[in-house]
UniProtKB/TrEMBL annotation, chain A:
GO terms for molecular function: ATP binding; ATP hydrolysis activity. Residues 7-251 form the ABC transporter domain. One of its GO terms (cellular component) is plasma membrane. The lineage of its organism: unclassified sequences, metagenomes, ecological metagenomes. Keywords: ATP-binding, Nucleotide-binding, Transport. It comes from freshwater metagenome. This is Unannotated protein. PANTHER family: ABC TRANSPORTER ATP-BINDING PROTEIN (PTHR45772:SF4), CONSERVED COMPONENT OF ABC TRANSPORTER FOR NATURAL AMINO ACIDS-RELATED (PTHR45772).
From TrEMBL, chain B:
One of its GO terms (biological process) is L-amino acid transport. It comes from freshwater metagenome. Belongs to the ABC transporter superfamily. The keyword Magnesium does not apply. Gene3D superfamilies: P-loop containing nucleotide triphosphate hydrolases (3.40.50.300). Pfam families: ABC_tran. PANTHER family: HIGH-AFFINITY BRANCHED-CHAIN AMINO ACID TRANSPORT ATP-BINDING PROTEIN LIVF. GO terms for molecular function: ATP binding; ATP hydrolysis activity; branched-chain amino acid transmembrane transporter activity. This is Unannotated protein.
Automatic annotation (TrEMBL), chain C:
Its main location: membrane. GO terms for cellular component: plasma membrane. This is Unannotated protein. The chain crosses the membrane at residues 14-31, 37-55, 62-82, 88-110, 117-137, 169-190, 219-238, 258-280, 300-320. InterPro entries: ABC_transp_permease (IPR001851), LivM-like (IPR043428). It is found in: Cell membrane. The lineage of its organism: unclassified sequences, metagenomes, ecological metagenomes. It is a multi-pass membrane protein.
Automatic annotation (TrEMBL), chain D:
It is found in: Cell membrane. Pfam families: BPD_transp_2. This is Unannotated protein. Keywords: Amino-acid transport, Cell membrane, Membrane, Transmembrane, Transmembrane helix, Transport. InterPro entries: ABC_transp_permease, BCAA_transport_permease. One of its GO terms (cellular component) is plasma membrane. The keyword Manganese does not apply. The chain crosses the membrane at residues 6-27, 34-54, 60-82, 103-126, 146-171, 202-219, 250-269, 275-295.
Length: 265, 237, 330, 303
């Protein structure tokens, strides 16, 4: 584990009741790289994200961020650690305008506090935040949507907004949860270009089932199945791994270690 | 026969099914395969009335079923086993199964006990656990229970959504075998959605490959199994 | 919201407040005595309705116990005025603090509860708090209550502006507080805190992932809402009596009705709703002036109609009268 | 000792009624995800109907059964006219957040409560009136002692016990009961099993309406009848349901008896004025230790 590691996880095990959702998982993400997590449904990809973002409590395992060993963060502390996450269902605030949604992404760093807000003295901080939000929207190609409500956007547009919201806090590590889901091929291509640019600024981890897309943009790919990392490396090496082929196409090259009737979340 | 023509289903502005046309033939197993997010589950949910299509036609035995409610579609002989061992954990095994036959009580009262017995013969493990709550079952048993819940309504068409999800290969094999036997002996029509392509194509007569909401291949299963398209759809090469 | 500059939030709120104050003063000077008293009541309840707007409309927490917080404000003011002979201008701000503390306690409990659990718990609180009046008879004087009112203006006021009628003096007492409440509410809604609270309302999980400590923010919301309710309750008691009968459970429901009818997510909605609730009996009386109704009917007709309106608004357009703009897109 | 017995008997009889109210709330909560604050308004209204019938010379039992029917009909109507249209509105922006989706039906039910109370005021005036009991309200005599237990108490307890047994059997043993439980637990699977979920949900409202009307009929002989008398019963019943666990019928019964005993013992050993403070104390205590109630299921946070 070198100093330059953006994020590193080892021996991560998560249990839901009696089920082992993640079993001794490791993950290393270097700065300015894109790491893709793939695997069949229910393999445990999102559970890794949930562990990093404080939504589930791991049974065991270690996490280091920027080379420093940490406690597993609580969800509202992510921003402090320089981590941003998008949600699978996009997770925009339906009652806030697009601009306000993006501003939410950096609210806690805006330097305002409750008393300033109460007396109407946070205008300066708000204006600054607003400019940053507009910049982020512009970068994501969603500037003209600023005053709309999320309900008025098309799906690809909401994706752009959620990326803008994740970026406004200038994270060092960006977690993207199925960003390509529901997008057409055109939008996927545009999105891939966007992510390659983004890589200059931070490390990106992507959970995705669109393997094509992952292959095109990732520097490293981890393949999960039944809560375990079954293969990792560049996409080209991974896709030649028989274990991966088996996991995806279901040839019975599987380890078979799972007890009859055992299942995985 | 179930015939689907140019079916489009949207979630808000997301197009999940983009003009799907296909057919499930009488007394055959048709499998719909494809990577996650290809629209397989949406297809089944649209057939069973859980989702409303934006356009397109679904005809069952020559009759259009678009726009009907799920509870009415079941009555037409189409039973749907949704993804993820859809049973009700707080109810007992027996209650879960008999739930599927409630609507037949008036007309076919005498048949219900028989239908339940058949389920227990099909999956003897469920009989041992008759009085247990469904929540205490293993994943494989829950999947068997979900299938029994659907079959007890004596459907002519079974929509089966990813029975292999999260299950160990041996269990998957056992479940798929049961369904296969049932189809071959009773003439049940099966529309099987699977991520596990090799297993599904192994039992199916016909295979339909979906990618991004569109049909990319529609061929006899054996042919499809050898097709390069298949690997490309899953792994992108 | 466009073109925000430094300190423009305070400026915008000040302009709103100023316009509001001027319009109220003009209306107050034109109205007859009865309508002046009604206007004073509108101003007082407006503050209480704002407490519901902030709590339910903005942050998505349903409380049926705002009346109890009003009682806290009312009793604190009355006790300070009677026992320590404090002027209402000192007693009211101090009583807001006690309401705020009550809000803090409630907020700590509320941070753990949601939906119907919170609604029901606050309802029980609304019921239990007034019974303290009988429990501590010597202090709160039981069902009889504590008589207090706005009194008469100080000499310097009468000398400068002339002697106002009692009703007009009620307006002069309520208006500064309503204006201050409006100013603060407007500031909060225009700034980061309001946005954070709306975010919590819309999606707790996403808010948390964006760094919002929602348990803590919910407590803030309760404190702010409680101070508004306490202020409203203090002024409400100064209409003559502070006692358990003045702050019944139904008072909480009246505030909620007003907030929903007007539009539960905006300040203007709060004001519109308050006007509807206060004036509805008068309008009904006017509309039915030609029919001779028995007292039995006329007593209950306003309540019936406002309840039916509430149901209709909820079923047809839950965003309320002022909420149509927010509501039009899908 | 006599005070203790008196408190115990009175607690049992009250507890039985609170259990009924709580059960009504739980049935609708499980069936539709709504806490119906109008429930005792419906009960009040149907008790008035019974009262009117009885004053006009009909027998107690005519009034009794008409009231049960009226309660059921009101429950069903409420679902069809208000709650079902509201749940079909889920896609509007205001109702797109969980918090508002939970709050708005509660507000609607409060509107219904207000409307029913005002209407009762218009139709029957606001003065309290008595409501007859079908059994004697003097204590049984035991030798020369008058026991703190009346024939009416016995009637209440046995009727509630009977109701609880019948509803339990109905839910456990009948097909409709199974359909209702399935709808409450997982609507999608219920629909796919051919259950007409809209109908079963309306049925939950009807059963809940009848149960609460029964509670109204049983409590008014000792508390009198006015448009607002049952408000407190609702609040205690709600507390009972929360204490027991809103999603658990057995919890409702347990909570009902706990609250009945607390109220009774506070009244007998302390002062009636402390009743609401003690209810509040019980509620807060339970919510702090078990936020989902004693027998409630755990809340699982999902992503």
């Amino acid at each position: 584990m070198s100093e330059s590691t953006g994020l590193s996880i080892s021996h991560l095990t998560v249990k839901f009741g009696g089920l082992t959702a993640l079993d001794d998982v490791f993950l290393d993400v270097a700065p300015n790289t894109i790491v893709g997590l793939i695997g069949p449904n229910g393999a445990g990809k999102t559970t890794i994200f949930n562990s990093i973002s404080g939504l589930v409590t791991p049974a065991s395992g270690e996490i280091s961020i920027h080379g420093k060993k940490m406690k597993w963060p609580a969800s509202h502390q992510l921003a402090e650690f320089g981590i941003s996450r998008t949600l699978q269902g996009v997770g925009l605030f339906s009652g806030l305008t697009v601009l306000e949604n993006v501003m939410m992404g950096a609210d806690i760093t805006s330097g305002s506090n409750f008393l300033k807000d109460l007396f109407g003295l946070s205008g300066k901080a708000e204006a600054k935040l607003r400019r940053r939000a507009l910049d982020a929207l512009a970068w994501a190609g969603a500037l003209d949507m600023a005053e709309k409500m999320p309900g008025q956007l098309t799906y690809p547009e909401t994706k752009r907004v959620s990326i803008a919201r994740a970026l406004i806090s200038q994270p060092k590590i960006l977690l993207l949860d199925e960003p390509a889901a529901g997008l057409g091929q055109d939008d996927i291509d545009k999105f891939a270009a966007l992510l390659k640019q983004l890589k200059q600024r931070c490390a990106i981890i992507i959970v995705e089932h669109h393997v094509d897309f992952i292959g095109a943009i990732s520097d490293q790919v981890y393949v999960l199945n039944f809560g375990k990392v079954i293969s990792s490396g560049t996409f080209d090496t991974v896709k030649r791994d028989p274990a991966v082929l088996a996991a995806y196409l279901g040839t019975s090259a599987q380890s078979g270690s799972d007890a009859l009737g055992g299942d995985h979340a | 026969m179930l015939k689907i023509e140019n079916l489009v289903t949207k979630f808000g502005s997301v197009v999940a099914l983009d003009g799907v046309s296909m057919t499930a033939h009488e007394s055959k197993i048709t499998t719909v395969i494809g990577a996650n997010g290809a629209g397989k589950s949406t297809l089944l949910r649209t057939i069973s009335g859980l989702e409303h299509p934006a356009q397109g036609a679904i005809t069952w035995q020559g009759e259009s079923i678009v726009g009907r409610r799920p509870e009415d579609i079941v009555r037409l002989g189409i039973a749907h086993v949704p993804e993820g061992h859809a049973v009700i954990s707080e109810l007992s095994v027996e209650e879960n199964i008999s739930m599927g036959s409630l609507f037949r009580r008036r007309k076919f009262k005498s048949d219900i006990a028989k239908a339940m017995d058949e389920m227990y013969q099909l999956f003897p493990r469920l009989q041992e656990r008759r009085k247990q709550l469904a929540g205490t079952l293993s994943g494989g048993e829950r999947q068997m229970l979900a299938i029994s819940r659907a079959l007890v309504s004596r459907p002519q068409l079974l929509l089966l959504d990813e029975p292999s999800l999260g299950l160990a290969p041996l269990v998957v094999e056992q479940i798929i075998d049961s369904v296969n036997t049932l189809c071959r002996t009773t003439g049940l029509t099966v529309l099987l959605v699977e991520q596990n392509a090799n297993t599904a194509l192994g039992v199916a007569d016909h295979g339909v490959l979906l990618a991004l909401g569109k049909v990319v291949a529609d061929r006899p299963a054996a042919e499809l199994k050898a097709d390069e398209n298949l690997r490309a759809a899953y792994l992108g090469y | 919201m466009s073109n925000l500059k430094a300190h423009s939030i305070a400026r915008k709120s000040l302009i709103r407040t100023f316009l509001f104050t001027v319009v109220m003063l003009i209306l107050g000077s034109r109205f007859d005595a009865y309508n002046q008293a009604q206007l004073a009541l509108v101003l007082i309840l407006f503050i209480g309705v704002l407490s519901v707007t902030i709590l339910t409309g903005i942050s998505g927490q349903l409380s049926l116990g705002q009346g109890a917080l009003m009682a806290v404000g009312g009793y604190s003011t009355a006790l300070m005025m009677i026992n320590y002979k404090l002027s209402l201008w000192i007693a009211i701000p101090l009583s807001i603090i006690s309401a705020g503390i009550a809000g803090l306690l409630l907020g700590v409990a509320a941070a753990r509860l949601s939906g119907p659990y919170l609604a029901g718990t606050t309802l029980v609180i609304a019921l239990a708090i007034p019974t303290l009046a009988n429990r501590f008879m010597s202090v709160f004087k039981g069902d009889e209550g504590l008589p207090v009112d706005v009194g008469y203006p100080p000499a310097w006021f009468s000398n400068t502006f002339g002697e106002p009628s009692y009703e007009k003096w009620q307006i002069y007492v309520a208006l500064p507080f309503a204006a201050i409440a409006l100013f603060f509410a407007s500031n909060i809604l225009l700034s980061r805190s309001g946005r954070m609270w709306r975010a919590i309302r819309d999606n707790e999980l996403a808010a948390s992932l964006n760094g919002v400590n929602y348990s803590r923010q919910k407590i803030y919301v309760f404190i702010v809402s409680a101070t508004f309710a306490g202020l409203s309750g203090a002024l409400y008691g100064l209409r003559g009596l502070v006692g358990p009968s003045v702050y019944p459970v139904s008072l909480s429901l009246t505030l909620l009705t007003a907030a929903v009818l007007g539009g539960i997510r905006s300040i203007s909605g709060a004001f519109i709703g308050t006007v509807i609730v206060v004036y509805l009996p008068d309008w009904i009386e006017k509309a039915l002036g030609n029919f001779s109704l028995s007292e039995q009917v006329s007593n209950f007709l306003p309540a019936l109609i406002s309840s039916l309106l509430l149901i209709l608004v909820v079923v047809i357009n839950p965003a309320g009268v002022a909420g149509t703009r927010l509501h039009k897109h899908k | 000792m006599n005070t203790f017995l008196a408190a115990l008997f009175s607690g049992t009889s009250r507890g039985a009624i609170f259990a009924l109210v709580a059960l009504g709330l739980v049935i609708v909560w499980r069936g539709a995800g709504i806490v119906n604050f109008a429930q005792m308004g419906q009960a009040m209204f149907s008790t008035y109907i019974a009262s009117t019938l009885i004053t006009n010379g009909n027998s107690y039992w005519v009034g009794f059964f008409v009231a049960l029917f009226a309660g059921a009909a009101m429950g069903a109507l409420l679902d069809i006219l208000v709650m079902r249209p509201l749940s079909n509105k889920k896609k509007t922006e205001l109702l797109s957040s969980d918090s508002m989706r939970a709050a708005v039906p509660v507000i609607a039910s409060l509107g219904i409560l207000g409307a029913l109370q005002a209407l009762a005021g218009i139709l029957w005036a606001a003065e309290e009136r008595g409501f007859p009991a079908p059994a004697k309200q003097e204590g049984f005599t035991f030798g020369s002692n008058v026991m703190p237990f009346t024939a009416f108490d016995l009637f209440v307890i046995s009727l509630v016990a009977l109701t609880l047994v019948i509803t339990t059997l109905f839910f456990k043993k009948t097909g409709i009961g199974l359909a209702m439980r399935a709808t409450a637990l997982n609507q999608e699977v219920a629909k796919l099993s051919g259950i007409r979920t809209n109908r079963t949900r309306t049925l939950s409202w009807a059963i809940s309406g009848a149960a609460s009307s029964l509670a109204g009929l049983l409590i008014t002989p000792t508390s009198n009848l006015s448009p607002n008398t049952l408000d407190l019963v609702l609040i205690v019943g709600f507390t009972a349901a929360v204490v027991g666990g809103l999603d658990s019928p057995a919890g409702a019964v347990l909570g009902g008896f706990i609250l009945g005993m607390v109220i009774s013992f506070v009244t007998f050993y302390d002062t009636p004025e402390d009743v609401f403070l003690s209810i509040l104390a019980v509620l807060l205590l339970v919510l702090l230790i078990r936020p989902r109630g004693i027998l409630g299921s755990k809340d699982v946070r999902r992503v």
